[in-house]
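Q: Hi! First time doing this. I have a protein sequence and I read that you can turn it into a structure. Is that right? Here it is:
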Amino acid sequence: MFFWIARVLRLKAGQMPSRISMYQGRKKRYIFAAIVAVPVILVAFFVAEQQHPYRNSKTWNFDSYPENSSIPNTFVPIDTGGVQAKGTWAVKTDATAPSKPNVLARLSNNKTGSGYHMLIQAEGAYSNFEAGVKFKIISGREQQVAGIIVRFQDTNRYFVLQADAMNHRFSLCRAQPGIIVCTQDTDVSITIGQWHTITVQVAGAGGEPGIAGYLDGKRLLQRYDQNYMGGGQIGLWTKGDSTVYFDDLGVAY
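A: Yes, that's right. Below is the predicted 3D structure, encoded as structure tokens:
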């Protein structure tokens, strides 16, 4: 018993840790925890930035417009191919629309010529971005094609990712004066009357000059092309007598 009393007395005399030393110990632990936590937080921010690299986004789903109305005034239609009948763009109701009730329809008929039909979103020009659209090819006797335009400069200078149901092909093409050159393509199955999705990731002068094309979420095309590097507008694209429904055109930038 005397042994335990003596031990307590010695601790009270100076061997028990003081409040100051205890505080200093906790302070060291906090500093160490902060040193460890900061890199972890920075890594988390980096991962989030890589997964969500865009700060802004826009979507056009055409649901606020009445059926059979003309195209919204922020879109500019462009047709090529001479004086043949060109068809029309109109807002339509579709029970299968990805975002109900409306879609934007490119309506053609058997008399529609073989030109290209573009609908350019006039608000905004983009350099580093991701764009996408849902589409359903309805019909076409000579052509069954839908696409999304990026880096649009004018009617002779742009890129288009096109899905061709008739020829079972997904292609990345570049328009230049007098010609459209398809620089990459791959064989795919595109079903008439079924919704599909085209997504494109584009890096401009601020990064690698790549264009990556996805069909239904799967990356099928990628090319590093330095044409039209200043960026440009986005838009929708069809060919010839294709009748196509579009929905949920979007861009993140």
